[in-house]
Amino acid sequence: MTGDKLQMLIAMFAYMTLVVLIGLYYAKRANESSENFFIGGRTIGPWVTALSAEASDMSGWLLMGLPGVAYWFGLSDAIWTAIGLALGTYINWLFVAKRLRSYSAISGDSITIPDFLSNRFKEKKKVIMTISALFILVFFTVYASSCFVTVGKLFNAIFGINYQLMMILGAVFVLFYVIIGGFLAESASDFMQSLVMIFALVVILSVGIFSAGGVSNIVSNIRQIPGFFEFFGIATPLVEDGVQKLSQAGQPLFSQAGSYGFLSVISTLSWGLGYFGMPHVLLRFMAIRKLDELDKSRRIATTWCVISLVAAVAIGLVGRTLYPNALLTRSDAESIFVLMGSNLLPPLIAGIVMSGILAATISSSDSYLLIATSAVSKNIYHGIIRKKASDKEVMIVSRITLLLIAIVGIIIALDEGSVIFKIVSFAWAGFGATFGPIILFSLFWKRTTQSGAIAGMISGGSMVFIWNYLIKPLGGVFDIYELLPAFVISCVVIVVVSLLSEKPSQEIIDEFERAKAYKLEA
């Protein structure tokens, strides 16, 4: 290993050591009770709430997946995704955050999303709790695997270390960290990691623009690629066996620009719908200490989100100017951030910036593992299988579940050719369609019934699989992001089934009205 690489490794190791120390600091409090372990005892402040939510949400795809899309396809697909996510972030904080914080406290002091949905409808047989817990388990395991892929790609791209080895070591590190610190450690480190992430994005973008000769030179270069710098067109790399062809002069070849019409725009903007169903974001709303602090959190979160998304897209465009023929597959394109950081920055600074990817990965995977674990241990084991289980017993089951989920995530991530953006988009659609509609209807429509909730969750979650694997391959008008049709179908099913089923009990209606007026009491 060269001296430059060693300096980078030292900086990254120092960062990971700091993360472990945060976990150890919170270990005692986290292990006092399952409530502290899973939701931090509702003691999180506005800055930590906002930035930990965004850090856990964005994950490694923000620094690798999204720049990779921009590098490969150009502006349109990446920027419309970013716009949808920014709008979704703001609307979610504006409308959902306060109502969910108040309703979850009133409705049985719920500490997980399955808890809240079950308590909201006063379940006795815990059907909603079981269904929601199982969907969370499936989609968060997929999500966690995308984070493991990110770690493997990062160390493989920088140091040439075996992908599978580093992917597994990364998973082990995250697993150890979550086990010792729980939600409090996760939220505190996510706050720190959100700062590292935005620092890394801004530094790489600034240095990249300077190295490429300024904005005007970058725009001039990428305009020469058909469809690359258009909002309603898309670049089409000319590939053979998945590898982009080069001209005799060594320049990457592109086919004629593709069309990016109204349907494509709406499909991509629908990424924003996913926020209403993201358990790791919704959990932050439930964990904040005071209701009136959510306004401050909303402003912080939205600002962070917009700056980070714009920087990530721009890095992909700048990278295509600086290194036009360096990354010739869709999977390799996701390493543009790593390539720019390694080549343009002094080794020690590069190591700190590369820690931004580790920050994004750790901040997300710890959230995913923790919430998936709570779904099994708290909701299924304690809520259904063994209701008299002690808190200590629940904690033991939690740690066993963590290990099993991590193992499955590692198996999914073994393929070195995995595309982070594709894995994340599927899991995002799954959560958005399964939980987004029922969260909105539960919070804002008192006529929603238990039957409507069950039907909506099953139809939304199932349609993500059906659309992605059976309908989308038909192409044409069906080639849209599976979240959009699945979300719409879930909404329709909730309304129809709720209207056809018996009205909610007076107890449920009264609780709904108390939650609605809770802000006056807070």
Characterise the protein shown here.
With 522 residues, the protein is mainly alpha-helical. The protein has a single domain (3-109, 143-416), classed as Sodium/glucose cotransporter, CATH 1.20.1730.10. The chain is built from 19 helices and four strands. It has helices spanning 3-30, 34-39, 46-58, 61-73, 75-106, 113-120, 127-159, 163-211, 215-222, 262-269, 279-287, 294-322, 336-344, 347-385, 391-412, 420-444, 450-471, 483-500, 506-521; strands at residues 233-234, 239-240, 243-244, 258-259. A two-stranded antiparallel sheet has the order 1-4. A two-stranded antiparallel sheet has the order 2-3. α3 packs across α8 (163-211), α5 (75-106) packs antiparallel against α12 and α16 runs antiparallel to α17. The longest helix is centred in the middle third of the chain and has 49 residues, at 163-211. It is globular, with a radius of gyration of 23 Å. The termini are far apart. Mean pLDDT is 87; it is low at 37-41.
